[in-house]
Automatic annotation (TrEMBL):
GO molecular function: serine-type carboxypeptidase activity; sinapoyltransferase activity
UniProtKB keywords: Disulfide bond, Glycoprotein, Secreted, Signal
Organism, scientific name: Capsella rubella
Record's protein name: Serine carboxypeptidase-like 7
Matching Gene3D superfamilies: alpha/beta hydrolase (3.40.50.1820)
Superkingdom, taxonomy of origin: Eukaryota
Length: 436
């Protein structure tokens, strides 16, 4: 081979690798070099690769060659996985201090899941976070996204073959409860089809997952009663008049409608994501008060829209205007009505699963999650018991014969961000095969 050809080949290969993923050693807002290995990049999906999905990949701080590989998906649909990274289970968090125009500060966390796992944080669907499309996108859907994410994984692993043999888990919370079980099934089926190398799929983890929304919303009223947010009398009347259906009430059932209205008067000003926290602004737009928990949502938007941050993350110029924590404008068809059949199939195929619930979440009450788990009809292996952290009860757990573990996080909310330390300890015990 001539020197010129060799040079051109090297140039092509270096460009090809660079266009896929880049190592990030420093991030604005964090002092000094990052104490972990971060790679960011885009993966093109489709024949023309018009869809460019963005990811953050963080290597395990323990033993990346052998530790599990996780894919983390945020909810929404349309929320960026940067939220999962900086609020829930990543090695960095935003420092909560009043914004003064400079880049918000980042600090190391003690509770990162990357202490014992490699994690790919993926911005999906397209339009979420820094993912974008080169051509105008039509409506996407749950099932389309499942196929896209599967293709993303195959491509990503083909470029990172050193992780092909690592145990692989799909993880996420909230709306990803509709995507994760279907994705697990898709990967499982794909592993039996020619010609991509199989993904070493072992199981999945879901927090406060939306599973069968139409039915699950009916558990908000029993939850509110259990938390003393409504009176015994109102609850008894609701049960009698509505017969357990509080959401899609027959318009002719005026008695039930009136009582549901009473319920809303009692609960509408409660923070539905975490009943113990003030119901201050969750949108992260400028009017949030700095003493509100959700001021962090304002700070993450300032951080991700900082030009220096975008350069450090290697965001392609001109591909994304305003970065939003959650993009609610993505045309989307919620076409998986229930993910329960997927859970059943995945259990049948022998995949492990951890389903956990913050027990102060009205949005997706723990009773709703327990109800669909019970509907799978698996026998109980270890019955309801407390799980402990340093002699203190951190929640309650139960395990089933289908390798499913259910756990509550005592004092937790809709996502892991409310009690990341407890959630991390629970995850680390489960992933290493220990009892909680």
């Amino acid at each position: 081979m001539s020197l010129t050809l060799k040079f051109l080949l090297l140039l092509f290969l270096s460009h090809h690798v660079d266009s896929f993923g880049t190592i990030v050693k420093f991030l604005p807002g964090f002092e000094g070099p990052l104490p972990f290995e971060l790679e960011t990049g885009y993966v093109g999906i489709g024949e023309e690769e018009d869809v460019q999905v963005f990811y953050y990949f963080i290597k395990s701080e323990k033993n990346p060659k052998e530790d599990p590989l996780l894919l983390w998906l945020d909810g929404g649909p349309g929320c960026s996985s940067l939220g999962g990274l900086l609020f829930e289970n990543g090695p960095l968090a935003l420092k909560s201090k009043v914004y003064n125009g400079s880049t918000p500060s980042l600090v190391s966390t003690p509770y990162s899941w990357t202490k014992m796992a490699n994690i790919i944080y993926l911005d999906q669907p397209v339009g979420a976070g820094f993912s974008y499309s080169r051509t105008p996108l039509g409506k996407t859907s749950d099932t389309s996204e499942v196929k896209r994410i599967h293709k993303f994984l195959q491509k990503w692993l083909s470029k990172h073959p050193q992780f092909m043999s690592n145990s692989f888990y799909v993880t996420g919370d909230s709306y990803s409860g509709m995507i994760v079980p279907a994705l697990v099934q898709e990967i499982s089926k794909g592993n039996y089809i020619c010609c991509n190398p199989p993904i070493n799929l072992q199981g999945y983890v879901l927090g406060n997952p939306i599973t069968y929304a139409e039915h699950e919303k009916n558990y908000r009223i029993p939850f509110a009663h259990g938390m003393s947010l409504i009176s015994d009398e109102l609850y008894k009347s609701l049960k009698r008049a509505c017969k357990g259906n509080y959401e899609n009430v027959d318009p002719s059932n005026t008695k039930c409608l009136k009582l549901v209205e009473e319920y809303h008067k009692c609960t509408d000003k409660i923070n539905s994501q975490h009943t113990l926290l003030p119901d201050c602004d969750k949108k992260g737009m400028g009017e949030t008060s700095p003493d509100c928990y959700y001021y962090l949502y304002f700070l993450i938007e300032r951080w991700a829209n900082d030009e220096k941050v975008r350069e450090a993350l290697h965001i392609r110029k001109g591909t994304k205007g305003q970065w939003d924590r959650c993009n609610w404008t993505i045309p989307y068809d919620n076409n998986i009505l229930s993910s329960v059949p997927y859970h059943a199939n995945n259990s049948f195929r022998g995949y492990r699963s951890l389903i956990y619930s913050g027990d102060h979440d009205i949005t997706m009450p723990f009773q709703a999650t327990q109800a669909w788990i019970k509907s799978l009809n698996y026998s109980i292996v270890h019955d309801w018991r407390p799980w402990m952290i340093q002699d203190q009860i951190a929640g309650y757990t139960r395990t089933y014969s289908n390798k499913m573990t259910f756990a509550t996080i005592k004092g937790g909310g809709h996502t892991a961000e409310y009690l990341p330390n407890e959630t991390s300890i629970m995850f680390q015990r489960w992933i290493s095969g220990q009892p909680l």
